[in-house]
Amino acid sequence: MRKVRKNDTNRPVTLKTVAEYVRLAAGTVSAVLNDSPGSRGIPQRTKDRVLQAAAKLNYHPNPFARALRTNKKITGQPAGQAGRGPGTLMFIGAEHCARAIQAMRRAGLTVPGDVSIVGVQNSPAELDRIPA
Fold it and tell me: Which residue, of 14, 46, 68, 106, has the fewest CB within 10 Å?
């Protein structure tokens, strides 16, 4: 396992951070943390290393990134809309939108790119200035 550097304490702990810490692929770490069927072939010793590292680093899944990747809304879907393609997140207020964009970027998504921003008063250039 690699040491945690001082400047790492200011960064949010992502799945990629845990993967770098235990020196494994992000896919392996994801399989272990999500207890997916793909984790069945991973040795228990490796699973224990990943789980201990996640606990030590205080890793918590990012709900915005998870909602985007699973096409599920964080809040309930309107009646009759379940299973109809990608979900939608709506934010009221520039501060909430900026925080969501930061979380999405920390999760490895590109904004705009992987995520479309619709109905924002800001220009794409202004969105690019939002810190990751």
Answer: 46
The closest of 58, 66, 67, 49 to 17, measured between CA atoms, is 58
The region that residue 47 occupies, defined by phi over 0 for left and psi between -120 and 50 for alpha, beta otherwise, is alpha
- Give the model confidence (pLDDT) of 4-49 as tens digits: 554 455 678 888 999 999 999 999 999 999 888 888 999 999 999 9
Task: List, in order, residues 6 or more apart from 69 with CB less than 8 Å away.
Answer: none
The C-alpha atoms of residue 59 and residue 15 are separated, in whole angstroms, by 7
Q: Is 122 or 64 the better-scoring residue by pLDDT?
A: 64
Per DSSP, the three-state class of 38 is: helix
Task: Say how far apart CA 91 and CA 29 lie, in whole Å.
Answer: 31
Measured CA distances, 87 to 18, 62, 77, 126 (Å): 27, 16, 8, 24
